[in-house]
Structure formats: C-alpha cells, structure tokens
Amino acid sequence: MSEQIKHECGIAMIRLRKPLSFYQDKYGSALYGLNKLKLLMQKMRNRGQDGAGLATLKLDIQPGEKYISRKRSNASNYLDDLFEKVFERFTKLSPEQLADAEWLKANLPYTGELLMGHLRYGTHGDNSIETCHPFLRQNNWIPRNLILAGNFNLTNVDELFQELVELGQYPKELSDTVTVLEKIGHFLDDEVQRLFNWFKSDGYTNREINDLIFDKLDLQRLLRRASKKFDGGYVMSGLIGHGDAFMMRDPNGIRPAYYYQDEEIVVAASERPAIQTALNVHISKVKEIPRGHALIIKRNGVAAVVPYTDPGEKLGCSFERIYFSRGNDRDIYLERKELGRRLAKAVLKSANNNFKRTVFTFIPNTAEIAFYGLVDGLEDELNLHKAEKIAALGKNINPDKLRKVLNLRARVEKIVVKDAKVRTFIADTTSRGEMVSHIYDVTYGIVENEKDTLVLMDDSIVRGTTMRDSIIQIVSRLRPKKIIIVSSAPQIRYPDCYGIDMSKMNEFVAFRALVALLKENKKEHLLQECYDRCEAQEKLPKEEMTNQVKVLYDEFTYEEVSAKIAEIITPPNIKPKVEVIYQTIEDLRASCPGNSGDWYFSGDYPTPGGNRVVNKSFMYFMEGKDERAY
Predict the structure, then answer these.
(1) In a domain, 349, yes or no
(2) Structural domain of 80
(3) Are strands 453-458 and 358-362 parallel, antiparallel or unpaired?
(4) Which candidate among 126, 378, 485, 531 keeps its CA 20 to 30 Å from the CA of 393?
(5) Nearest CA to 564 among 546, 552, 580, 551?
(6) What is the pLDDT of residue 427?
(7) Is the same domain home to 371 and 300?
(8) Domain for residue 406, yes or no?
(9) Is the N-terminal amide bond of 132 cis, ω within 30° of 0?
(10) What residues of the chain score a pLDDT lower than 70?
(11) Distances (CA, A) of 22 to 32, 69, 97, 151, 224
(12) Which pLDDT value is given to residue 434?
C-alpha cells in the first residue's frame, strides 16, 4: 500500500504443557517458551509498530511469591527494546543457573508456563506506554486476576461502559481495552464468587475452595456472559491468575486467529505462518479458531475449542487478505495473486492491448504478490494473442515471423522504488511537501518518452494523497504517454469500525469523488437529504439502523467514480493522462471466497453497530467535525 494505514493488532499466546526442566533437557533451554514467544512476535511485527508487550504467569506458586510478570515498550525499536529488557535478567547468570529450570522459576521473572505477547498499532488516541497491552486486572484472590490483550475495536463502548457504571464500577478511562477488561473481569469475579458460595455451603474450607474453583471455573460460561453485548470485530486473549487461559474470536470471524497443539505446547496467534515458522509445523497442523468460538486451556493443560456464542455469517476481513496479513500464508498468497490476475483484461483494454508499448510495474512492497498475479493474467492473454497471430500466418509459416510472434513478452520492470524515509527537519510547508514527494524514486531510461503507457499496481488507494503528491509526480518525469493506476482492492467508500484506521469518511478519495460528482451534476441536495435520514435514525436501536450513505453511490456508475478519482489524484501541470482501474467487488469475493467481509467497499456491515458508525461518520462530515464516529 502506497499510503500507510494502521491496524490493531497482533497477539500470541503460549501454554507450556510440560515442566520447564523438560524443555531444558530436550531443547537445551528452560527459556524455550520465551524464545518461542519472541519468534512469534517477530514474525508478526507487520501487525503493530507503535509498541509491544508481554506477560508471563507461573503455575503452582505458593502464597507470597510473585507469579505474574509484565513488560511493555513503546520505543522506536520496540521489539528489540522489549526483549532486551526481559532477557537482561538472565545475561549475568552462570551456565549452571541457566540450566537449572527449577531455580529459574523460583527466583526470576518471565519463567512462567503461560506466556502472552502483543503488538500494537494504535488506530486512535495516544501511543503512550500505558496504551500498550497486555492489561492487568489484579486481585489478592488468585482466580480473580486477569491478564488481557486483544486485536479488536468495539462499536458500542459507550453502552458497555454505562453498564459498568450501573453495576457500581468506576472504570479509570473510557476505552475499548479498559471496558473489555472490566467487563470480563466483572463476570470473572461473579463466577468465582458463585463457586465460592456453592462450595462454602457444602462445608469446604476457604483453602480447599480455592482448588475447587481452579478446577470448576467455567470459562465458556464466563465468556458467554461477558461478551453478550459486544458489537465489533475482535480476538481477545486472556490469562487467569490460577492458570486457565483463553483466546476468543468474534461471531463473524472478522479478525483472524489460529492455534496449534501437541503434547508439549499449545500456541495461538493472529498469523498462521508465524505459528508454522516458530514451531516448524506443517500448515495442516495449524487450525483456525472458528467464529464465535474460544480456545480454552485449563490449568491442567487440557485444551478445547468450544462455542461461547452463536456464530454469525462468516465475514472475515477482506483487508486482512489484501494487505495486513503476511503474504507468506499460502491461502493469502494465492488470493492476492488471483486478485491481480482478474485485473489483466481491464488493464489491457485500457492499454489498447498494446504489449509493445506498455510497461508493467508495481508500487512496493505489499502489492508485489498481486502484481505476480497480474503478470500471470497478462501472459494468459498474450498466449491467446499469440495463438491468433500464429493461426493468421496460415499453413506456410515463415520461421522468422513465427519467432517474432513467440518472442512477444509483457514488459515487466521494476520502475518505482521506495527510498529511505526523507527527514524534513525544519522547513516551510512548500519545501516540506517537495521533500516528502521524494520518498519514492524511479528507474530512468526504460519508459520511452511520449510513447509508452506505464501501468502501476497498488494493493489499495485509500486517501489518494501519496499517489497525488508523490508517486504520480515522480513517474511523470519518465514522460510516459499514459499512466494507469491499478488497485487490487475495490474503491474504499465506507469507514471501518472493527480495528483499521479508516474511520473518517471525508478522508476517502472515493467519497470525495462522490461529493464532487454530486455537485457537478446539480445533485448536492442529496447530501442534505441523506443527512436528514441519518439524523432520523439516531434515536432508533442500532439493530434497526440501515446504511443511508449507500444510496448516494447509486447515482453514479463504478466507472464514473473511478474517473473522478483519477482527476482528484492527478497533480496539476503533468502531461500524461492518468487513469484508475479498481478491482470489482464481484472479483474480490471470487478471489477471497472464505473471507467476504467487504464493508469498506460494499457498505454491508457485519454487525448493527457498523450501520450506526457509517451514518454518524457521514453526519460528522456534513457538520465539519474531524472526529471518529465510534
């Protein structure tokens, strides 16, 4: 993606099923779990660059001994900083001490059997150390302690927060994470108290009751009660003080979650390839946590995947497939290639099927896989073209003419290169804009002046500012006859409210194109009418709201919006004509059949809260408010 958008977040959870001494004997280190957590987080660093944190929990610790350890970092080199601070506890130990697993667990932090790691992308708010996960909810009763980390956004935080207030709580802040922490924590307290009262009436002592609670705490019931009113996309991971653990996924499977287990370890994470690499296991061994289910690991190490709510329609986030998830996942790799392949015919049509005078390239780096798919599609089309040419040669084929046909190739080149980030220091606005425009550089001498068409593939165009202010300006210096921008994603028309930093409607170039078209066609009054409809729905329950913005897009064809986008992102005073080709929603769905959550493009939100957010976001646009709508 030529424009950075943010996303939260990445999670990893590990449960060691054997004593630490087992890993010392078999793998040569009692820090086996910590090393695996580090590798998991390194392999998911694409999911968060604002900070990272980890927490560990020790089993079977006596009262008075510390059993929870946590470390967080928001340094610029957050992962290195995090693990340097953790491992510095072990750097001065003797080889004998490092080899003594029981001594390490008894005397040093971060030596627990349960481990959790988190990578944070802050979509909104500050990026202080206090916003880094995991979060702790501490209590002197061991089963009431909760460690929580998540990859989520909820659309109804205000509603959930108010419920906590009505329960008599005083949450320290109004945020998704604190609200979820306290919500789950409240029902954890309630479940523990319910079990305590039950066993107390049977005459057990308080110490005996603790052990019974450890065994009988029903996390499936707890998560069902706590999440009853959650509206959003989420994967949440939790460790309970006595040793239970869980990772839960929302009813529509919006956010990704995978797990692996064997007799030694249980691992869960946001990315499947991270698990494959860290544990060196085949893809067939790594399972997806189903939507509306939770992976629950009891204190005794027994793991099960169970439903905690009624699963809804499977609507996995398609942006995960297009951009966010790592492309070394087999399925995502193939899906991205298919997205590119399906654009070949539209691209060639725009280039007048002129292979000789068209140069194909991509904008680094996340569009590279889709570009490979585009090249595959171009080769398929070129083979058809060659077959027609050969057939036209007739029976007496001239070898030179045949060789000329067979030698036809798509001109695939590396034209655009992302250079080192330009630091502007102190500069006036004009100078700063000029310097920022040079974050990309180009390969000169490949595109023939005023004769060649240049095709640039990107994986998505969100705001269009980088395309206008940097990329198109730079490639226009190559003096192509025409520039075709190709997006492997459809037009981003609607805000997200499930974890991606795309919440303000007026920032989307597709929406700005829509507004411009309405004004040009004397239909500006439709904006006010849409505002009135949104305002009328404000008092309705969110379950009865509908997306009122969709009807505005019905006024124009997909191609008309694309053409207006091309105008908007074309810098002034450049000579080449600029055209924009977007993926269609139909081809997106065909390319990613198992993950059809495409509300950014279609406006079809998976939860009722999404419709409320899109309407509110439009109202904020009309009111001139620069705020997110949830």
Answers:
(1) yes
(2) 10-314
(3) parallel
(4) 378
(5) 580
(6) 46
(7) no
(8) yes
(9) no
(10) 1-8, 121-127, 173-174, 420-438
(11) 10, 22, 16, 32, 36
(12) 57
Say whether both 309 and 352 belong to one domain: no
* 545 contact partners, CB below 8 Å, separation of at least 6: 537, 608, 611, 612, 615
Q: What letter represents residue 608's amino acid?
A: P
Q: What is the pLDDT of residues 249-303, one digit of tens each?
A: 999 999 999 999 999 999 999 999 999 999 999 999 999 999 999 999 999 999 9
The verdict on 304 and 364 lying in the same domain is no
Rounded distance between C-alpha atoms, residue 37 and residue 29, angstroms: 14
* Of residues 545, 527, 520, the one with CA closest to residue 619: 527
E strands present in 19-127: 51-57, 68-73, 114-120
Q: Which one, of 222, 246, 355, 233, lies nearest residue 295 by Cα?
A: 246
Question: In total, how many domains does the chain have?
Answer: 2
Same domain, 199 and 244: yes
Tens of pLDDT, residues 133-144? 899 999 999 999
Q: CA 325, CA 273: separation in Å to the nearest integer?
A: 10
Q: What is the dihedral of CA 185, 247, 116, 50, to 10 degrees?
A: -90
Q: How far apart are CA 245 and CA 24, in angstroms?
A: 24
Contact 11, 247 (CB under 8 A): yes
pLDDT of residue 7: 56
| Helix, coil or strand: residue 538 | coil
Which pLDDT score, from 0 to 100, does residue 169 have?
74
Q: What is the pLDDT of residue 588?
A: 96
Distance, C-alpha 627 to centroid of its chain: 22
CA distances from 626 to 159, 441, 622 (A): 22, 33, 10
Compute the half-sphere exposure of residue 328: CA atoms within 13 Å on the CB side of its CA.
Answer: 10
Euclidean distance between CA atoms 426 and 428, whole angstroms: 7
Q: Which of 71, 80, 1, 88 is nearest to 42 (CA)?
A: 80
Q: Could you write out the DSSP letters of every residue in 457-523? A: EES--SS-HHIIIIIHHHHHTT--SEEEEEESS----S---SSBS---GGG-HHHHHHHHHHHHTT-
Q: What is the CATH number of the domain that holds 253?
A: 3.60.20.10
Is 90 within a domain? yes
| Residues 135 and 208 placed together within one structural domain of the fold | yes
In a domain, 583, yes or no: yes
> What are residue 535's DSSP bridge partners?
none
Displacement of CA 355 from its chain's centroid (Å): 36
Cα within 13 Å of Cα(112), Cβ side = 31
Do residues 61 and 147 both lie within one domain? yes
At 233 the three-state DSSP class reads strand
| Shared domain check, 491 and 443 | yes
SS3 at position 260: strand
Number of H helices, E strands in the chain: 25, 20
Closest CA to 136 of 55, 249, 16, 48: 55
Strands (DSSP E) contained in 339-450 are: 358-362, 411-412, 416-418, 440-442
